[in-house]
Design goal:
Layout: E1 5-12, H1 14-19, H2 21-29, E2 33-39, E3 49-52, H3 63-77, E4 82-86, H4 88-97, H5 99-103, E5 107-112, H6 123-136, E6 142-145, H7 148-156, E7 164-166, H8 182-192, E8 199-204, H9 213-223, E9 230-235, H10 241-250, E10 257-261, H11 266-269, E11 275-278, H12 287-294, E12 299-302, H13 305-310, E13 317-320, H14 325-336, H15 339-357, H16 359-375
Parallel strand pairs: 1-2, 1-4, 2-3, 4-5, 5-6, 6-7, 8-9, 8-11, 9-10, 11-12, 12-13
Helix pairs in contact: 3-4, 4-6, 9-14, 12-15
C-alpha cells in the first residue's frame, strides 16, 4: 500500500524549520510521505521531497504567477491527501493552485498565523488582505486561527471555509525551554558576561517597525539613572538594527543595551534573565513570549491580540494598554524591586504554557483536525494517536 502524502507550503522554507518540524515528524511517524514547497534551499528533516517554489512576500509581485504555475503542476503530479499551507502568500498561492486537486478530494488546510488585518492594523492591510482572505476561505476545508480575536473575526465575518478552528499556535518545547536552577542561572550569567545583581530584560525579534524595539530603548533611557544595573538584551537582526544602535548611543544607554544579533541559543539565554518584554504593535501568537514564559519569566508586553492571549495582568505579567516608553519603564521598575513577585509571576506563566501551549497539546489539537478532514474523504481509514 502506497504511503499517503501531505504537502506543506509556505512563502519561505525557514518557516518550517522554525515552527513546524514537530508536526512534520509526527506525520513521518504515522507513515506518511512528507513534501514541502516554499522559496529557499535549506535542508529540512522529516521531509521526503523538497521543492523550491519562488513564492514572493508581496501579493502584488508578478513573480507569484510563476510560483502559482509551478505549484499547480507539482500538485497535479502528486495525489496529496492533505495540503497544509502557511503564511499569507503561501496560503494564497497554494489554495489557488490546489483548486482542481480539492475537487478530486484533497483536503486543503490553511493556518493564519495572525491575520494582517486586525484591530489597529493599517487601513491598507484591510484593503489588500481582508478581501483576499475572505475570498480564498471558500477554497479552504479548514481555516486554522491561532488567537481568539482572529477566530471571532473569521466567524463573525462569515468566512466560507468548510471549518474554522482555533489552535494554540505552534507549541513550545517545554523540555528545551525551562527555568534554570539557582546554580545554573549564576553560571550562565557569568558565561554571558553579566553580574549576579544585573537586572536582565530580554526581547527576541526581527528589527522592524512592528516589533518596535526603539520603544524599549527609550524605556531604558528613562531608567538609566534610577536602575544603573538594568540591561536590555535585544536578540535578532533586521533593517532597523543600525537605527536602534544609533538611538541607544544618542540616548546614552549603549552600555545598558546589548544587541545580541541572530542567536541559536535563546534557550540558554532566557532562563538567565529576569523579565521578558514585548513592544510589538501586532502579533498573532508570539513564540518569543511563549518561550520566555516556559522559562519562568514574567512578561511586560504591549496590549495586542497575541499578547492578550498569553499575558494576564498581575497573574504572569503586565499588559500595557498604552504603548509608551514611560509605562514600560514604570513596570520594569516595579518588578526590579519585587523579586518574590517576579518568581510567582514566572511560575504562573510556565504553568499556563504547560497546560495549554506546549508542543504536545498543540499536536493533539492538530491531530484531531487532520482526523476530521481525513474521515471526510471517502474510503480513507484514519486513526490519530
Amino acid at each position: 500500500m502506497m504511503a499517503k502524502k501531505i504537502l506543506f507550503c509556505a512563502t519561505v522554507d525557514y518557516h518550517f524549520k522554525a515552527f513546524h518540524l514537530p508536526t512534520m515528524r509526527w506525520f513521518k511517524e504515522q507513515g506518511w510521505e512528507v513534501h514541502v514547497a516554499a522559496s529557499g534551499t535549506i535542508s529540512l528533516p522529516f521531509t521526503d521531497q523538497k521543492y523550491n517554489i519562488p513564492i514572493q512576500r508581496s501579493p502584488l509581485n508578478v513573480g507569484n504567477i510563476q510560483a502559482y504555475k509551478e505549484l499547480k503542476t507539482l500538485i497535479a503530479e502528486n495525489q496529496y491527501s492533505i495540503i497544509h499551507c502557511h503564511t499569507p502568500l503561501g496560503g494564497v498561492v497554494a489554495r489557488l493552485a490546489s483548486r482542481n486537486a480539492r475537487k478530486a478530494g484533497t483536503k486543503v488546510i490553511y493556518t493564519a498565523h495572525g491575520f494582517h488585518f486586525c484591530k489597529g492594523a493599517p487601513l491598507l492591510n484591510w484593503i489588500i488582505y481582508y478581501p483576499i482572505e475572505k475570498l480564498l476561505a471558500r477554497l479552504t476545508d479548514c481555516l486554522i486561527t491561532i488567537n481568539t480575536e482572529d477566530y471571532i473575526l473569521a466567524v463573525d465575518n462569515r468566512f466560507k471555509a468548510a471549518r474554522i478552528d482555533l489552535v494554540n499556535g505552534v507549541g513550545v518545547d517545554t523540555t528545551r525551554f525551562q527555568p534554570f536552577t539557582v546554580k545554573q542561572k549564576k553560571e550562565r550569567r557569568l558565561k554571558l558576561g553579566f553580574k549576579q545583581d544585573d537586572f536582565l530584560l530580554f526581547y527576541a525579534g526581527e528589527f522592524n517597525k512592528n516589533k518596535n524595539q526603539k520603544l524599549l530603548i527609550q524605556a531604558m533611557a528613562n531608567l538609566k539613572d534610577e536602575l544603573p544595573k538594568a540591561r536590555l538584551l535585544l536578540a535578532g537582526e533586521g533593517k532597523l538594527l543600525a537605527e536602534c544602535e544609533k538611538l541607544a548611543e544618542r540616548l546614552g544607554v549603549s552600555s545598558q543595551v546589548e544587541f545580541l544579533g541572530f542567536r541559536k541559543d535563546i534557550d540558554q539565554i532566557l532562563p538567565a534573565c529576569d523579565v521578558a518584554v514585548g513592544s510589538s504593535f501586532r502579533e498573532g501568537l508570539p513564540v518569543n513570549i511563549m518561550e520566555a514564559m516556559a522559562c519562568g519569566l514574567p512578561v511586560v508586553a504591549s496590549d495586542n491580540r497575541g499578547h492578550r492571549e498569553l499575558v494576564y495582568e498581575e497573574y504572569n505579567g503586565f499588559l500595557l494598554k498604552e504603548n509608551c516608553s514611560r509605562h514600560f519603564s514604570d513596570a520594569w521598575k516595579k518588578l526590579y524591586s519585587k523579586t518574590e513577585q517576579r518568581k510567582i509571576l514566572g511560575l504562573n506563566g510556565r504553568k499556563l504554557i504547560l497546560n495549554k501551549f506546549n508542543e504536545e497539546a498543540v499536536r493533539l489539537q492538530l491531530a484531531n483536525i487532520y482526523k476530521k478532514n481525513m474521515q471526510e474523504q471517502e474510503g480513507v481509514q484514519w486513526e490519530a494517536r
